[in-house]
Amino acid sequence: MLARANAKLTKSTMIKDINGRRPLSRRDFVKMMSAAGLGSMLGIPAARAMSSSVKAKIVVIGGGAAGISTAARLLRWLETPDVTIIDPSDIHYYQPGFTLIASGVYSPDEVYKPQSSCMPSGAKWIKDSATFVDAKKQYVDTLKNGKIPYDFLVLAPGLKLNWAMLEGANCDAPGEGDAHCIYTHKGAIKMWEGMQKFVDKGGRGIFADTYTKHKCGGAPKKVCLLTEHLSRMRKTRDKLKLDFYTASPELYDVPFFTPRLLEIYKERGVNLNLKSRITAIDTSAKKVRMEHEANGVKTTTVEDYDFLHYLPPMTAPDFVKNSGLSIEGGSHAIEGWAATDKNTLVHLKYPNIVCLGDVAGIPTSKTSAAIRKQSPIAAANLICLMEGKEPSEIYDGYAACPIVTDYGHVLMCEFDYDKKPKISFPLSLLDMSKEQWVAWLLKVYALKPMYFYGMLKGYV
Ligand SMILES: Cc1cc2nc3c(=O)[nH]c(=O)nc-3n(C[C@H](O)[C@H](O)[C@H](O)COP(=O)(O)OP(=O)(O)OC[C@H]3O[C@@H](n4cnc5c(N)ncnc54)[C@H](O)[C@@H]3O)c2cc1C
Description:
- The protein has helices spanning 7-15, 26-35, 38-41, 65-77, 98-102, 115-118, 185-201, 219-233, 258-267, 318-322, 368-386, 437-455; strands at 58-61, 83-86, 91-93, 112-114, 124-126, 130-134, 139-142, 147-149, 152-155, 160-161, 179-180, 203-208, 240-245, 270-273, 276-282, 287-294, 297-304, 307-309, 314-315, 338-339, 353-355, 360-361, 399-406, 409-415.
- It is α/β, with parallel strands linked by helices.
- Helix 4 (65-77) runs parallel beside helix 11 and helix 7 runs parallel beside helix 8.
- The chain starts with 6 loop residues before the first helix and ends in a 5-residue tail after the last helix.
- Flavin-adenine dinucleotide binds at residues 61-67, 86-89, 95-96, 98-99, 129-130, 156-158, 182-183, 215-216, 219, 317, 319, 357-358, 366-369, 371, 402.
C-alpha cells in the first residue's frame, strides 16, 4: 500500500515510530487503540440509545453516509420499523479514502462496496432517484417508481458537484490538460498518476478550493501538502513551485489549528493566496483565470500551470431547491442547502422532515465525521416527532477534518459550531494543535473499517 507511494515510506512512517520507539504493526495499533478506548475517540453516539413502539412510514432520500447510518439506527430503535431508502447507486464509496488513493496510499479498489451490502437489513431499498418532494402532500416523486408517500422524511441526498458552474471544468475527463480533481473516484485515481508525473518533471503547481460551501475543506490542503512531501522524498522539491489559492479570507477558520497549519505552509515553501478563486480553466493552454478580492475590489489574473488541482462549486441537489426545501435568503441561498435547525436537525418549515449530512444548511463542516454525530441525533429527534413530542437531542456542530500534512502525520482538527477545539479522548492526551503520527495511523487504518462496520451499521 504505502510502498506504492515510496518504498521509504513503509519503513519511516507506517511501522516505525518517528520518536524511535519500537516498530508498531497494524495489529499492535489496533490493539493499542482498542485499549485506549477507541470507541470513545471515534465518537460515542451523541444521542442516547432508545426504543419506541411508535409506528409510521419513514422514507430516507439518499443511501450515503448520512442516510444509511440514520436508517440503521431507526431500524434498531423502532420496534416495528417501516423504513424505505431511495438511492440510485450501485456502489457505496468511502469518500474520505479518495485523498489516500490520490496520494498512492490506498489502491483504487479499497474504498468502495456494493451498495446492496451497505443497505441495513430490514430497510426497503428503492433503487431510484428522488426528483421532487411535495412536503405538504407528503410524498417523494421519483424518476422511475412514481410517488412514494411518507409520514416522516430523512433528507440525506448529499451534495451536487456543480461542474457546470466552473467554466472549462470537465468531470468526464479527469486529468485532461493536467487539471485534476480528487472529488470523484476516477479523479482520485488520475491524480496519483498526475501527481507523480508532476513531482518527477517539476513546474508550477496550482492548488485551489472553491467559493461555495464544499465537502471536506481539508482535502485541497491535504493533496497540496502530500505533493510537496512526495517531491522531497523523490528529491525533486527544488523543481517545483507550489501555489495554494483559497477563496476564504484565511487558510483555516478554527483558531486552535490555524497557527500550525500556516507554519507548515511556510516551512514547506507553499505560497498562500487568500480570497482568490478560479473562475475558468483552459486545459489546452494550461491556464486558469483567477479572481482576487482585496479591500472590496475584485481583480482578475491569468495564471499558467503545469499541474492543477481544483474543486468545482458545490450545491444541494436540484430537487431540494425545486421542492422549496432550501434556505431562502442569505449569501449562500444560491447553493440551495436544506433549511435545517442547527440544533435539532429538523427542517425549519416542515417538522416531519430531518436533514443531515452534506445537504444540511448548518454552519459546520461537511464531513462524514460530522455525520457520525448528526445521525443519532437526527434519528432520536425523528422518533420524538413521531411520538408527538418536541425533539430533545441537540447537535453541537461537532465536525472533524483530518488534514494530512505529510506521509506520516495528520493535523486532526475536531471542533464545534463555536470553532472551539473538541478533541476526542484519548487524542486529548496529546497536543492536537500539532500534527500527530497517531492521527495518521487512525486516518489510514482505523477510520475506514469504522465507517463500513461501525458507522453505517449505526453503532458509532
Ligand atoms: C475527496 C474527499 C475527501 C474527504 N475527506 C473526508 C475526511 O477526511 N473526513 C471526513 O469526515 N469526511 C471527508 N469527506 C466528506 C464526506 O465523504 C462527506 O461529507 C460524506 O460522504 C457526506 O455524506 P452524505 O450522506 O451527506 O452524502 P454522500 O455520502 O455523498 O451520499 C449521498 C447519497 O445520496 C444519493 N443521492 C443523490 N441524489 C439523490 C436523489 N436525487 N435521490 C436519491 N438519492 C440520491 C447518492 O447516490 C448517495 O448515495 C471527503 C469527501 C471527499 C469527496
